[in-house]
UniProtKB/TrEMBL annotation:
<dbReference type="InterPro" id="IPR016181">
    <property type="entry name" value="Acyl_CoA_acyltransferase"/>
</dbReference>
<feature type="domain" description="N-acetyltransferase">
    <location>
        <begin position="5"/>
        <end position="166"/>
    </location>
</feature>
<dbReference type="InterPro" id="IPR051908">
    <property type="entry name" value="Ribosomal_N-acetyltransferase"/>
</dbReference>
<dbReference type="Pfam" id="PF13302">
    <property type="entry name" value="Acetyltransf_3"/>
</dbReference>
<protein>
    <submittedName>
        <fullName>GNAT family N-acetyltransferase</fullName>
    </submittedName>
</protein>
<dbReference type="InterPro" id="IPR000182">
    <property type="entry name" value="GNAT_dom"/>
</dbReference>
Length: 171
């Protein structure tokens, strides 16, 4: 466990990480890259990537950004929503436990600072390391959404994971 790993709002000096997410397929990795995107810098300038409908934070170790955690609303009805979370670590950070640690940080943050009762993660069915990592955090596999995500010219299956406030394991 990295003692200095934490999450914080993006700063101007972190924007190279956002550029990588938008412009470099190796940053998002083979299971998340869906093509070039734009607007991250503009959204950062307008909102700091923090809104009532979701947000993104830099994962930082020793003061250096090493990844991104994000969340967005998944509405169930007019009164209820879950947060759907996402995580992207730089390639050199993967499979070192820092992604799991960042996910735990985000889980605790969202349950401490929002009223949501449910967190969700949607993970490409072929992404075994992410599936294993999210289960270590405490998420429960709830099913498969067949053909739900378009990537690399094909429709892919997505595994649905959930974590309720009452499921949260002590750190």
């Amino acid at each position: 466990m990295r003692e200095n790993l934490h999450c914080r709002p993006f700063r101007e000096e972190d924007l190279h990480l956002l550029d990588g997410v938008a412009e470099d397929p190796t940053v998002l990795g083979p299971y998340a890259w869906t093509g070039f995107s734009s607007g991250l810098r503009r959204r950062w300038a307008e909102t700091g990537l923090l809104t009532d409908d979701g947000g993104a934070l830099a994962v930082v170790d020793q003061g250096e950004p090493v990844g991104v955690v994000s969340w967005r609303k998944a509405a169930y009805n007019a009164a209820s929503h879950a947060w759907n979370i996402g995580l992207c670590m730089l390639p050199e950070e993967r499979r070192r436990g820092s992604g799991e640690q960042a996910a735990r940080w985000l889980v605790h943050y969202l349950f401490a600072h929002t009223q949501t009762n449910r967190l969700e993660a949607h993970i490409d069915a072929e992404n075994i390391p992410s599936r294993t990592g999210i289960e270590k955090v405490g998420f429960v596999y709830e099913g498969m959404a067949r053909g739900a995500a378009f990537r690399n010219g094909a429709w892919r299956d997505v595994c649905l994971y959930g974590l309720l406030r009452e499921d949260l394991r002590p750190a």
